[in-house]
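Notebook, bench 3.
Goal today: get a predicted structure for Zeta-carotene desaturase from Klebsormidium nitens so we can plan the truncation constructs. The sequence was checked against the plasmid map this morning, with no discrepancies at the termini. Length recorded as 599 residues. Pasting the sequence as submitted so the record is complete.
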Amino acid sequence: MMATSAAQQALCSAPLSQMGGQVASRSRHLQTPVASGSSCSSFVGNALACQRRIKAPRRHLKAGARADLQTMVSDMSRAAPKGLFPPEPPKYTGPKLKVAIVGAGLAGMSTAVELLDQGHEVDLYESRPFIGGKVASFKDKDGNHIEMGLHVFFGCYNNLFRLMRKVGATDNLLLKEHTHQFINKGGNLGELDFRFITGAPFHGLKAFFTTNQLSTMDKVQNAIALATSPVVRALVDPEGAMRDIRNLDKVSFSDWFISHGGSRASITRMWDPIAYALGFIDCDNISARCMLTIFQFFATKTEASVLRMLAGSPQTGLHDPLIKYIEDKGGRFHVRWGCREVQYEEAADGSVRVTGLHMTKANQSEIVKADAYVAACDVPGIKRLLPTAWRRWPLFDNIYHLEGVPVITVQLRYNGWVTELQDQAKINQLARAEGLDNLLYSADADFSCFADLALTSPQDYYKPGEGSLLQCVLTPADPYMALPNEEIVAKVNEQVFNLFPSARNLSMTWHSVVKIGQSLYREAPGMDVFRPDQRTPIDNFFLAGSYTKQDYIDSMEGATLSGRQAAAKILESGADLAALREQLQQSLASSPAKDLATV
């Protein structure tokens, strides 16, 4: 019996317009009155910005330096929960497979690399004109690099670093100071400074006991809460601690934290900005599992909280090397090809297998045939792709309990250096880059995390004769989604000056706005149970994506790990998939094909 998806007109990997997303990029000048500068200590790096040297940091690491991944990276294969960094797969000796992957984000490309390394044939289909999924970037008509979000690479991202080593992209990362910086109203700086003479867990204790982001009483209450958390067990029993953390998925982080002695002020001033940065929702709405998972890594691994950022845009620093590697291995990308329909048949014994994907590009239409099919989509994409009839299986039906979080990424270019807090003359000059070279958090703005890309990622974002390029991530973006872009920009610009009053004499010279209706899946309490495995009840149909079952949160690392897991399950099924191929070919031979075109 032949059947088709009910979502025949939907695309798995939809353009931004179909995700509720919009992109606006234009030049604009806002004149603002001069305000007296504020004087605060600042940490800045020594990154090269188009051959212009930036002021050196106060101490310790050379932040901003291009660094290999031999140092300042945690080993997540030791003294860590199993499965976070799988061992290298054994050499595959089964039959060669043809695999079709829908979605060319990190999960899809991670899957492709694993399969190509084992000698298989892989095609990736992406409905957008660019690849990368939630980590995508592209150039506008004026050559500006537009991003979908702000992307940082923590020291515990072993799977992503492994992938970058494979494709030769590790030189595209810039190391930042091992301190997490908070920008408060009026230009006041707070920080979690992990730099210490010794490592975990003492570096973390030092960071939390010495932070100036919290009052003394809040720090005491914070210590009580964390001392009674599974994070302590992780020091001696990481696997048991991970089980304890998974069991806390049903409660919010706020409920857990306050019930263990933590204060509401700690949540407001420190943990909410971090929760927004991690999952785009606050501590009242994010699962305790999500937050404590990250705390476990940061507490037990010295380098887990170290972060790097790309030297340039995601396209040039990450995706271009991935594309080259995949194509050099024989993989093929098909952009602007959307999946309109999953074709499948149900056998007499009730088993179901996919027989093809109906793919379209403009006026072209083809049926893609493969031995294995991988849906490497985000949450809204997989919901559009799945045939309605498949909801009779709990694994697929559970996906419909998940939803994405809206997010807006705003880029603002200025005619000076916004995050320079010490010297008004340095703010106004354009001869050299000045300011804070790091990821920045704030409890006093609607963008809880942001960075000056002209400093953090100068290769593509520093422009001679121009100043800061702030990239601000609005979370939660719900109140902003219906607003016109000009109003969003004006609101964000004013909040920037509330954080950096010393920059009020600067003018904004350019901006862009990217709206995404559903980005990361909402890691609310009780949602973890609904995340699907990469293996599905359909023998030749697999899932990949950071929302699928894996112990990292929805992140670049989670996407990469999900791709490794999906590929491993395909390889485990190699003989069965080859046998199914023979059965389908025999079935096709006995009944004439109805497809007009097959690839």
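The domain at 150-194+306-312+405-521 is CATH 3.90.660.20 (Polyamine Oxidase; Chain A, domain 2). The first helix runs from residue 106 to 117.
Flagging this for group meeting.
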